[in-house]
Specification:
mainly alpha; 11 helices
């Protein structure tokens, strides 16, 4: 029925938003992809549809398509917008090569807040496995530079201090926590 509504009133993005929410709730990826395709075609300058498409690709592990969406976002939206650059950093945490460094330099040039960059550096070092010592140094720097946020660095240190690097679920927990924190600090998705 929602597909019919999008055909009857093609200029109303509200039906697409309902369809996306409903598809996610029902875990219907086929309907979600169709809704996103319609949204991206009809509303090419609307961040909501790009955001949803990016998260779908990222969650499915299709990092190449996620990076393609990020590059499109960088071209379509203002050059000083943190959101596409943050998504690039977020995705590059799981990619080999220099992608992370390229996005990191861009984030510095755009003057992304230091506490966010410090946490991203921590996540990068932590998720790379063999760099747990570097991750601890990043967390120490975060703790020293941003004392008003010590509650968060203390929590990260407490959660990860005695856990072996091979423990399953730890990387996902650190990634999810840092991701939510950074998005909140950058006001990503608060439109």
């Amino acid at each position: 029925m929602i597909f019919l509504a999008t055909e009857w009133i093609p200029d109303n993005r509200w039906f697409l938003e309902i369809g996306i929410a409903r598809s996610k709730q029902e875990k219907n990826d086929v309907a979600l992809v169709k809704m996103l395709q319609i949204g991206l075609i009809r509303f090419p300058d609307d961040m909501l549809f790009y955001r949803e498409a990016y998260h779908l690709k990222f969650e499915q592990g299709d990092l190449a398509d996620a990076m393609g969406l990020i590059r499109d976002l960088i071209q379509r939206f203002p050059p000083d917008d943190f959101e596409p650059i943050y998504y690039g950093l977020r995705t590059a945490l799981y990619l080999p090569g220099e992608e992370f460094n390229v996005f990191r330099k861009t984030a510095e040039r755009l003057k992304m807040p230091g506490h966010v960059l410090c946490l991203i550096d921590y996540a990068y070092a932590f998720l790379r496995g063999g760099k747990r010592g570097q991750a601890a140094l990043c967390l120490d720097e975060f703790h020293r530079k941003y004392p008003s946020l010590n509650y968060y660095s203390d929590m990260l240190r407490f959660v990860t201090a005695d856990i072996p690097p091979t423990e399953k679920g730890v990387n996902a927990a650190v990634f999810t926590s840092v991701d939510h924190f950074c998005k909140k600090m950058l006001k990503i998705g608060d439109a």
